[in-house]
Amino acid sequence: MYLSSRMITSVSPGTNSSFLLTGFSGMEQQYPWFSIPFSSIYAMMLLGNCMVLHVIWTEPNLHQPMFYFLSMLALTDLCMGLSTVYTVLGILWGIIREINLDSCITQSYFIHGLSFMESSVLLGMAFDRYIAICNPLRYSSILTNSRISKIGLTIIGRSFFFIIPPIIHLKFFNYCHFHILSHSFCLRQDLLRLACSDIRFNSYYALMLVICILLLDAILILFSYILILKSVLAVASREERHKLFQTCISHVCAVLVFYIPIISLTMVHPFGKHLSPVAHVLIGNIYILFPPLMNPIIYSVKTQQIHTRMLRLFSLKRY
């Protein structure tokens, strides 16, 4: 592999050097073929989330707390796709191979921030389901439009404010290793791997964020479903139980679709050094592409209100 001198030499703090993005190493001849499914996935991802947002926006009957949270999820997935489409498809199309430090830091800020945001939105959706099932008579009075707006602003602040210190800190590191990233997009962990400066503050601070946001959200989601399960099992009618479970299945699928890839990617960096570079790239792409691709499909199929309006939208376009 050809490496320019600026990819090998040490980079002083504050220097806006370039880093080599990694595609599927050794398969460069197949990139034109790889670009077809990846372009299709991005097109489906962007179209699917835009359609969910359009349906919720234009249907007054869907202006309810559950669908407000769903619109937050679709917007988060849409932004995740837009934040990575240039580098992922740029490599496959032969448009780019390198990214400068400032652009890399900016991209990593949005990727990590949007990951935290998706986790927070999923927690909000779990709270919505808990109130709807365990305290249905107070549902409307608890989840008012004003309260949902405050929850949304809290989610944005929680997701994008607290990650500023470790992301900005990346600008002031000395990068003295080969400037080759593990993925076709930028992650904070990747830049830390290339740094020769003291990274302890960055590592410990980021670990605290993962524990306080991702891990805490997962525990609270699990706890909410334990309470939901307890409430549902107390219902005498089997049909009512089935109906209540059906209202949660879309959210459970969205939680699994988000947490399984992010746990896999988190494990790959410290424990997957023996894996091939292609495996790293593949797991990274699954983490970036799978949740935004699957969430519109899950909610379009499993949520009756969205499913009905999607069919109506397609029939209007057809005729």
Written account of the structure:
This protein is mainly alpha-helical and 319 residues long. It has one domain: Rhopdopsin 7-helix transmembrane proteins. Helix content is 73%, strand content 2%. It has helices at residues 31-58, 65-92, 101-134, 139-142, 145-160, 164-169, 188-194, 200-233, 238-271, 277-302, 304-318; strands at 18-20, 98-100. A two-stranded antiparallel sheet has the order 1-2. α1 (31-58) packs across α11 (304-318), α2 (65-92) runs antiparallel to α3 and α10 crosses α11 (304-318). The longest helix has 34 residues, at 101-134. It is globular, with a radius of gyration of 21 Å.
- Largest sheet features: 2 strands, antiparallel
Give the rounded overall mean pLDDT.
Answer: 87
Strand order of the biggest β-sheet: 1-2
Q: How many domains is the backbone divided into?
A: 1
What is the number of helices? 11
Q: N-to-C SSE series?
A: EHHEHHHHHHHHH
Beta-strand portion reads under 5%
Shape assignment: globular
Q: Radius of gyration, Cα only, in angstroms?
A: 21 Å
Structural class: mainly alpha
CATH class: Mainly Alpha
- End-to-end CA span: 53 Å
Q: CATH H-level name... which superfamily?
A: Rhodopsin 7-helix transmembrane proteins
Residue stretches low in confidence (pLDDT < 50, at least 5 long) are 1-6
GO molecular function, one term: G protein-coupled receptor activity
Domain G-protein coupled receptors family 1 profile: 48-299
InterPro entries: GPCR_Rhodpsn, GPCR_Rhodpsn_7TM, Olfact_rcpt, OR51/52/56-like
Main location: membrane
